[in-house]
Every structure is written in C-alpha cells, then in structure tokens.
Design goal:
1 helix, mainly alpha, single chain, 97% helix
C-alpha cells in the first residue's frame, strides 16, 4: 500500500516540478520590467532625498569646523 502511495505522489509531483522548471524563466522575464521600474523609482527617490537634505548636511559640515 505504501508503495502505491509513493507512486501516486511521484505521478503528481513530477509534472508539477517540470511545469515549474519550464515556467520559472518565463515568469522571471515577465517580472523583469517591474524590477527595472523599481530600481528607477528607487533611484529617483534617493536623488530627491539627497537634494532635499543637502542644505542640512552643508550647514552641519560648517558647524564642525
């Protein structure tokens, strides 16, 4: 009985594993533009943060000397 259960598990999991192996690169390619967009948006926010905090950093630099 246990051998039959192992066979059923193998018959179910093998196609799922093969499907995941085939679909993973396709999903990665589909999500690549969103990843690039996230990098671009993060860069814009870091630039805005650097521009807005520049006066405070310059004033703090002047007080140390």
């Amino acid at each position: 009985m246990l051998f039959i259960l192992w066979l059923i598990l193998a018959l179910i999991s093998l196609p799922i594993a093969l499907l995941a192996l085939v679909l993973y690169p396709l999903v990665w390619l589909l999500l690549l533009p969103f990843r690039l967009l996230g990098i671009a948006v993060d860069s814009v926010f870091q630039t805005i943060h650097a521009v807005l905090t520049l006066p405070a950093r310059l004033l703090r630099l002047g007080q140390d000397g």
